[in-house]
């Protein structure tokens, strides 16, 4: 049996003798190996050997004088050959190169960075560094040689492509969970300044944005094992001194505040013609939203609102044509549902300076004068339409969100004082309680957009009207006031008018991912009372009025969260069971006939490990029965490295389409609706797969999204439908319990014989 490699290097390309323990049986070469001097030899490498053994025997056969530990093997793409991928390299007959070992290459690279005597040499060194620094052996040696210090110095002084390469090298180093814990506030501020400059090149901004995102996410609570520890103990997690999980939102935000125009510049880049730049900017904003600390949350959200980030994303919704941005936009949408929920559940405190300032602005813009009523009690906020003077009680159900909506409603309408005076001129029983109506509309819209709890968004489509929440609220509140007047409502008709507005809101906000805004405005401003009432009567014939009651709506919200969590666990279980997928062409190569872009093997089996940290997989020419566990799955992808799950982005290679009867044979291949890509902020696409059917696609895309720390978003209508269906079924069961008082319903009735005498009916009457 062969146990080695062949090697007889006499010409630039020659066959090498077999090293096989004495056997003289000729063997077919498996690979070619090229040395640094340009010598190329054909070799047969035994797959049972380790990489160290292969390199040692190569050095012996090629009469290399240096120690074999100074050398390593790489393929033509400069990927390091390791024990994990050696057998695959042999099977696919990849051309190999005998090069410096990562540790030796790192030492030489660190020395070159110290010299910096030639700009061209420095640029080439950094270009090489950004490729190799992802490797643990290289990175460890580079750090030990103080290379990180020199890299940081270069970032502080370089410009143009040199700076871009240096930042990319730092970005790639930060993929490792060690080695960059010494990055200080000065470095973070330097990256902030780079991003704050509108003149910074796109290839500079991309890695700089990714670095800040990584720093935001490297907070102590994200360290491996801390979530489990937090559940069993109190207090902050205890981390080792050299842990990189020492940064987080608060550390980065302090430096962001010092950078003039930082957030403004990042938001402006959402409209960049460079899709990757727009995507990196969106991912940074999403990361900041997901990790914002309680102490800086209000300040950060207020700054985003001031800079109209919602409007920038709405423009992106209507203008983008590249699927790569869809997932990031849906993540942003889900993040702002969390923001809205937090505002809604933050109680009003009249002594809180920010709340007091908004209340004072509301009162000033109303142009009212406080007085006393006939009982001598203060009459102030009741003039606006509240039931009492206790504002903390009045805003109890809508919180800061209700307060902001009322303030925006007044700001958007310069005639608001006239509206209030018109209501005050009517008899008390006929006045529309404007402030109370405003809060009721907030409740309606929160229910419409399922703002029940953070992390439970199931929207699979864009919701531009939701991002214009304040504007929709203003339209709906004006509609409430108009319906009150047109219907001749009195004080006891509040719930009736509320039902009218609820019915109209459903119509006006339908299909919001495709409806233009002017149609929404028309539905609220032009629709007559008679038409709304007629449609509502038809709806009441079909729907149970009980479902619109406040206790039932609260019950639905509770069941919705339980249903979401149930579906989340089911999806994650599907990931742990594993599934076969087609290996697809990467994004942006779906029309290429280049055979080198094709995956080497058409099938991939993937399975999530029990610890929920890695996706283990194996590529194969044919499907086979995969055993339980991870023994058959030699390769893996770290779940934490997946920053986005993009859908509909890739296609099956043409040769796979021809070979597999269950896939449509089309060429050029088009992006499959059942495809998905696992994207990393640093490495691009980690995996490109096509599911065998819609159900498997929904299980995996939504399962991977739900696995993310920030909850992600739901991609499939199937999963969203499951959550809704479980919610409605649970609601009906609960209502049966309430209305039937837990009475067991018989499964069938058996009629007995008719009575022989019916005279008793008449005798009772007489």
TrEMBL record:
Q: Does the keyword Ubl conjugation apply?
A: no
Q: Name one GO cellular component term.
A: plasma membrane
Q: Which PROSITE patterns match?
A: ELMO
**This protein's record includes keyword Ligase:** no
A GO molecular function assigned to this protein is: SH3 domain binding
Keywords from UniProt, A to Z, are: Apoptosis, Phagocytosis, SH3-binding
Residue ranges of the ELMO domain?
354-509
Question: Which region ranges are annotated with the description Disordered?
Answer: 1-23
Q: Which Pfam families does the protein's record reference?
A: ELMO_ARM (PF11841), ELMO_CED12 (PF04727), PH_12 (PF16457)
Please give a single GO biological process term from the UniProt record. actin filament organization
Comp. bias regions, Polar residues: 12-23
Q: What does this protein do?
A: Involved in cytoskeletal rearrangements required for phagocytosis of apoptotic cells and cell motility. Acts in association with DOCK1 and CRK. Was initially proposed to be required in complex with DOCK1 to activate Rac Rho small GTPases. May enhance the guanine nucleotide exchange factor (GEF) activity of DOCK1.
Specify the protein name.
ELMO/CED-12 family-domain-containing protein
Give the species: Favolaschia claudopus
